Amino acid sequence: MSAARILPDRERGVCCALEPELPAERAGELAAVLRALADPTRLQIVLALREATEPACVCDFTATFGLTQGTISHHIGKLRDAGLVEATRRGIWTYYRLTPHLPAHIRRLVDALR
To answer: CATH number of the domain that 60 lies in?
Structure first.
């Protein structure tokens, strides 16, 4: 079926405004989360934290991915900025976990990652 058959007849030069599916604020929030997840390492970090029974340290991720502490910290920083990960300090160590009270639409997105 050609596009000409499914589009309504229009007057040339007259545009019709479309109603956005999402409010602008929610679209911005989802876009920030998707940008944070649009890296293979960050995606794997989120998946690991989702399944973890305890918070994880940067050294756990350096051992897992074979990346430097600085690189892992950079990735976790992006995830924190997007609100996906939170940190807790214990002495000199910082432990990370998936933010437990993510908004429902963000939680569904994270849960859909498999």
So the answer is: 1.10.10.10
pTM of the model: 0.81
Query: What are 95's two structure tokens?
Result: 């432990």
In contact, 85 and 99? CB cutoff 8 Å: yes
Instruction: Specify if 46 maps to a domain.
Output: yes
CA distance 49 to 98: 6
* Nearest-angstrom CA–CA distance, 45 and 41: 6
**Which is nearest to 52 in space by CA: 103, 96, 8, 18?**
96
Judge whether 21 lies within some domain. no
pLDDT in tens, 80-90: 999 999 999 99
